[in-house]
Design brief:
Layout (H helix, E strand, L loop, with lengths): L1 E9 L5 E7 L7 H14 L12 E10 L9
Protein name: DUF2922 domain-containing protein
Pfam families: DUF2922 (PF11148)
Organism: Carnobacterium alterfunditum
Length: 74
């Protein structure tokens, strides 16, 4: 199963934006996740159409994804 970490942020326009991290460190503490997210926010390096997509911390979660291939073309 593929596991990813979703970091959920509030945008400066009041919407939610998700940043996904593949193959994350597992068992992160709340404090470590919040620290990392606050570091991303403090960089203030993203702008989309004049809005900051990573303005506030909303939450973080691990997501597991199961893929069942039917076939692959050769």
């Amino acid at each position: 199963m593929a596991k990813s970490l979703e970091l959920r942020f509030g945008t400066s326009l009041g919407k939610t934006k998700t940043m996904s991290v593949k193959d994350p460190i597992l068992n992160l503490t709340t404090e470590k996740a919040q620290q990392a997210m606050n570091s991303i926010i403090s960089l203030n390096m993203f702008q989309i159409e004049g809005a900051n997509p990573y303005a506030t911390v909303v939450g973080a979660r691990y997501v597991e994804r199961v893929v069942d291939d039917i076939f692959e073309a050769e």
